[in-house]
UniProtKB/TrEMBL annotation, chain A:
Lineage: Bacteria, Pseudomonadati, Chlorobiota, Chlorobiia, Chlorobiales
Cellular compartment(s): Cell membrane
Residue span(s) of domain ABC transmembrane type-1: 91-374
InterPro entries: MetI-like, MetI-like_sf, Phosphate_Transport_Permease
Entry protein name: Phosphate ABC transporter permease subunit PstC
Length: 388, 272
């Protein structure tokens, strides 16, 4: 009964709209739009507020101590009687783990996304993607605990062999590919002489293989000989952070690869392109803006992560020696804020308190800039793709 | 934590205020060091339970404890250091006669990995390691390995004590020093790192790490008690004049069996 009544009402409403109903509809539309607008602007206002309040507490630091010490000195002794607030080593530490984790997570993540979207059959993808996304659900303190209690001693005891095997596993396949392609390229010029090129190709392949094997072995052995003195170092944190950034990168890039759609892929195949050519020349360029967004998101995740670096980076505020030494312990901006906040709030108003806000502002500005840059690149990419 | 502490204080103050008019003499107020705080709080709970006396414990730091006592705002000042001359002078000028009582002792063990065959260092050597002058174990008679120096974060009382007793307040600790957030974290890092050196409260030492002799003295309850172990300090409760009544009873809790048990359970060393 009631259902038919409702149906009739709806029908009549659709055809004959009374003035009163129209007013109600207009009012509802206005209220709905207003509500959505309020919610959307609320988020923007929250961001502005965070910026404002962090900046408000950060500026007194620069008034008290100036810019030079903060950005150029590596002496971080905030608790001493005349405190020293040189954050250069800490900024460097943050940059170091961010770059390190990006170097691991970006190739791995993008490759995994391509594999998921264009290589693996649908049934496998259905299971693989949720499993990768599970990585994002693990609390960061659990990652930190793993890094400190399990991974750090492992790196100390078997650091050399671990790096050797990692090198072999990663560089090995690339070397095989390089040998094949190189031998192919050098012999294909010969053109007609089929039998001659075959012999030449075999000889070249063997020669290259020996060189490649020698190189693999030499680098592997030098890695194997390295003694890792401390397991709580930049490498440990970079690896753990890259695993934390992976689900973001894989998930977002896979979505953007999927969004490229069937038409482009089928068009490419119809022109006679192989699957590899389709992926490299058609799908990747079309999805590049989405992949870039994924990479930026992943990097932001690594830069902003606190718990893991606080637990497992060693927190020593110095620039590693030499500067690229990932086996040295470092200190990051986020860990410093977390670690020093406990006492700093008792001395509100001092440089020691405001310096932490200065660090927070630095992090905010950095993420703001990288967001802007990625936005610009996405816009430019769209223009290129649409042929303008 | 902070909020909990504040809530606790609030409740304590409120209950104190409620009972104060009726039994003004049956209440004690303690203020001062955060290091002595745990002892004072377990004593307070015990005292209230057994003698029906309300005890309020605030933890505002040794300096503030002294100030409270001088101003007559507390009965007992908890202090993890002796009274400074200026404080004694200020007390005298207000007619307060500060008398310090050692309530317990606190020792810090310098620990290394069990596989490290270094078993004794001098205070000088430890200072040089933490200042970054000595960077390899073979410089202090150990294996050839780069020393992994581990310290506590800047707001740790243990760090504070270690700096003032060993490194020297004026000397910065090497920038290479790793920082861990708790006694437990330092212990776990040292236990898993062959070349590490760290320092932890005496109560935290177990078989997973090796504690070093400092200036030839092995850290233990006995050596801290007889004063021969150098990285140790007495913890004080300071009163105005010789204590009487409930104040005396409270301070002398550390001579009773129950009091001794509470102190050793908290990881401190008994004086008696």
């Amino acid at each position: 009964m009631s259902q038919t009544n409702l149906g009739e009402n709806r029908m009549s409403g659709a055809f004959v709209v009374s003035a009163r109903k129209r007013t109600i509809q207009k009012g509802m539309k206005f209220a709905g739009e207003g509500l959505l607008f309020a919610i959307a602007s609320f988020v923007a206002v929250v961001v502005l507020f965070i910026f404002f309040f962090v900046a408000r507490d950060a500026i007194p630091f620069f008034q008290l101590r100036g810019f030079a010490e903060f950005f150029t000195s590596t002496s971080w002794y905030p608790a001493d009687a005349p405190g020293e607030f040189g954050a250069l080593a800490i900024i460097y530490g943050s940059a170091m783990v961010t770059v390190g984790s990006a170097l691991i997570a970006v190739p791995l993540g993008v490759a995994a996304a391509i594999c998921l979207s264009d290589v693996l059959p649908f049934s496998v993808r259905q299971y693989a993607k949720p499993v990768i996304e599970m990585l994002a659900a693990i609390p960061s303190v659990a990652y930190g605990f793993f890094a400190l209690v399990i991974f750090a001693p492992l790196l100390q005891n078997f650091g050399g062999p671990i790096m050797m095997w990692a090198w072999w596993l990663i560089a090995g396949p690339f070397m095989i590919l390089a040998v094949i392609v190189l031998a192919d390229l050098l012999t294909s010029k010969d053109g007609e002489q089929q039998s001659g090129t075959n012999v030449k190709r075999v000889v070249l392949s063997i020669l290259f293989s020996i060189i490649a094997l020698g190189f693999l072995y030499w680098v592997g052995m030098s890695l194997n000989a390295i003694q890792v003195m401390t397991g709580t170092n930049a490498l440990n944190v970079s690896i753990i952070l890259s695993f934390m950034a992976l689900p973001t990168i894989v998930s977002v890039s896979e979505d953007s690869l999927q969004a490229v759609g069937r038409e482009l892929r089928e068009g490419s195949y119809a022109l006679g392109a192989t699957r590899a050519e389709t992926i490299v020349k058609t799908v990747l360029p079309a999805a590049s803006s989405g992949i870039l967004a994924a990479v930026i998101l992943g990097i932001m995740r690594a830069l902003g992560e606190t718990m893991v670096v606080w637990m497992a980076s060693g927190n020593s505020s110095h620039i590693p020696d030499p500067w690229y030494n990932y086996l040295d312990s470092i200190r990051t901006l986020t860990a410093t804020i977390a670690g020093d906040m406990g006492e700093a709030d008792q001395v509100t108003g001092s440089a020691r308190y405001h310096v932490l806000f200065a660090m927070g502002l630095l992090l905010l500005i950095f993420s703001f800039i990288s967001n802007l840059v990625s936005e610009r690149i996405v816009v430019r990419q769209r223009k290129i793709l649409s042929g303008q | 934590m902070k909020i909990l502490k504040k809530l606790f204080l609030l409740v304590a103050v409120l209950s104190f205020a409620a009972t104060a008019p009726a039994q003004a003499k049956d209440s004690l107020v303690l203020d001062g060091s955060t290091t002595v705080g745990p002892i004072a709080k377990s004593f307070a709970a015990y005292f209230t339970k057994n003698y029906g006396v309300q005890v309020t414990v605030s933890e505002s730091g040794s300096g503030n404890g002294a100030k409270s006592l001088i101003n007559g705002a507390c009965d007992i000042a908890n202090m993890s250091r002796g009274m400074k001359d200026a404080e004694v002078a200020a007390a005298k000028s207000k007619g307060v006669d500060p008398v310090a009582h050692v309530v317990a002792l606190d020792g810090i063990a310098v620990v290394v990995h069990p596989s490290n065959f270094v078993s004794a260092l001098t205070t000088e050597q430890i200072r040089d390691i933490y200042r970054g002058k000595v960077t390899n174990w073979n410089q202090v008679g150990g294996p050839s390995a780069k020393i992994v120096v581990i310290q506590r974060e800047s707001n740790s009382g243990t760090q504070d004590l270690f700096r003032s007793l060993v490194v020297g307040k004026k000397n910065p600790i090497t920038k290479r020093a790793e920082t861990q957030a708790s006694n437990g974290a330092v212990k776990s890092r040292v236990a898993t790192t062959p070349a590490a050196i760290g320092f932890i409260g005496l109560g935290f030492v177990d078989d997973s790490v090796k504690s070093l002799s400092v200036d030839g003295v092995k850290p233990s309850v006995e050596t801290v008690k007889d004063g021969s172990y150098p990285v140790a300090r007495p913890l004080f409760m300071v009163t105005d004049g010789q204590p009487t009544g409930n104040v005396k009873k409270f301070i002398e809790l550390n001579r009773t069996e129950d009091g001794k048990q509470m102190i050793s359970e908290l990881g401190y060393v008994n004086k008696y």
